[in-house]
Queue: 2 jobs
Job 1
Amino acid sequence: MATATVLRLGDEKKILQKSGEQRKWFPSLDSRTVFLVGLLVAGSGLVSPPVALVGGVAFGFAVEHPLRAESAKLAKLLLQASVVLLGFGMNVVQVVHAGRSGFVYTAVSISVAMALGLLLGKVLRVGGKASYLITAGTAICGGSAIAAVAPITGADEEEISVSMGTVFLLNSVALLLFPFVGHLLKLDQNQFGLWAALAIHDTSSVVGAAAAYGGQALAVGTTVKLARALWIVPVSLITAAYMARAVQGSKSAKAKVKMPWFIVYFCAAAALATYLPRLHDGFAAMNHLGKAGLTATLFLIGTSLSKKTLQQVGARPLVQGVVLWVIVGSASLAAIYFRLISI
C-alpha cells in the first residue's frame, strides 16, 4: 500500500512538472507567433511606419522577446537594404543638391553637438565612454555611430547598451513627435526633411518620420541624413588616433573603421533611376519594396525596447541624451523655421 502511494505521488509530481514545462513552453510559442505575425503585417504595407514602431514597442513591453538576437541582426540588414531600395525613388540631381547643401549644415551641427555633449557628460558625471558614445550617437547617426565608435574606444557591453538604449528611446519619441510638430508649425516638405535629418538620430527614424510627412520631405531628409552619416568616418578616425595616442598598442587603437557602403549603393540606385527612365516601373516596384522593408525594420527596432532596457539606461545618461537632443532639435528647428538655413 505504501509503495503504491509513493508511486502515485511520484506520478503526480511528474505530471505537475510536465504541466509546468508546458506553461513555460506555450507562452514562448505564442510570443514567437505574435512576433512573426507582427513582422509580416508591418512588411505588408497595411500599416504606416509609426504604427509599426508603436506595435513593436508594445510587443517588447508585453512579453519576453523570443528572438532578440536574430531580430537585431535582421533589423540592421533590413535597414541597409531598405535604404538602398528607397534610392530607386530618388532623383540623383536632388540627392547631389541636398547632399552638397546639407554638408555644411551637418558639419556645423555635428561639431557643436559633440562639444556640447561632452560638456554635459562632465557636468552630469556620466561615465567617460558612455558619455562619448551618447554624444557621437546624437551628433552623427545614432546606433550606427555608436557601433562604429564603440570598438575603437574599447567600451564594454554595459556602456554600449546604455548609450544604445538612450538613443533608441529618443528615436522612438522623434518618430511620433516630429511629424506632429511639423504640421503644427506648417513646415513645408523641404523644411521638415532638413529638420528631421539634422535632429533625429538614426537613419531609419529619419526616413520613417520624413516618409510620414511627404515624398519631398523623404527625398531631402534621406539625402541630408546620409551626408550626415558620412561623418562617421572622420569622427571614427579622429577617435582612433586619440585612443592610439592615449593607449599605445591597445586593442582599441587597432580597431578598424567600417565604411557605411549602403550609402554608396543608395546613390548608385538614385543614379540608375534618374538616367534609365525606361525602367521606371521596375524601379518604382523596388522603391515600394524599400518602404515596406523600412516599416518592417521599425517594428523590429520597436521590439528591442523593454523594461530591462529602460532600467539599464539609468537616469544620468538619459538626462544627458535628452538635454543634448532637445538643444540640437530646438536650435535646428528655429534656424529652419526662421529661414536662416534652407535647402
Job 2
Amino acid sequence: MKAFAVSALALVSICAVSAQTNDPVALAAKVQQRYNGIKDIQGDFVQTYEGGVLRTKTTEGGSVAIKRPGRMRFVYTKPEKKEFVSDGNRLYVHMVADKQVMVSPAPGPDQGDIPAMFLAGQSDLVRDYTPSFTALPGAAPGLLTLKLVPKKPSAEYESIGIGVNPKTLQIQFITAVDTQGGRSSFSFSNLKENRGLSDKQFEFRIPRGVDVVTNSARNQ
C-alpha cells in the first residue's frame, strides 16, 4: 500500500509538471511558489559571458551562497580570484589581483532584472516578467527554459532566462541579454537548499592595502 501511495504521488507530480509545460505563466508561478519557501541556497557555478564587438567569450567559475532576502556571495576561483558580496545593504566587488574593492548600494526590489536577484528574493517571476517558452543558448539538455521579459523596461537588460529541472523545479541555469547584445549566463551545480546559512557568511571586511571606490569617489 505504501509503495502504491508513493507511485501515485509521483504520477500526480509528473502530470502537474507536464501540464505546466504547456503554459509558461503557470510554470513561472510554480517556480515562484517553490522559491518562496526557500531561505538559502549554496553550490557551485560556471559563468560565461559573450559580447562586445568581437563577440569574445569568457568563462569563469567558483562557489555561490545566497540567503533571502538580498544576501549573496559569489566567490570566483578561476581563472582569477574575485568576490561579489551583498549583505543586503551594500554590494562589495573585490578584485583581488587589482587590490581594489568597489562599494555601492545593494540592488533592491526595483532592480529585479539583475539576473541573480530572483534567487535572492528581490523579484517575482509572474509579477515582474512576461514569460515565454524559448530555447536558451548554453542551457543543459532536458531543462525547461523560460525567457522572461521585464514588464518594466530596464536600462541594462533586454531579457533574462531560466532553465528549470522539470522534476524538481529547481533553477539550474540563469542567463541575461543586456541592451548591448551581450549575454551573461550562470550554470549551477551541487545546489543545496535551506542549510541555515548565517548572516555572518555575507559580511565583507575590506582587506588592508586595497583601493576602495565608493559611489565614484576614490578613497585609500
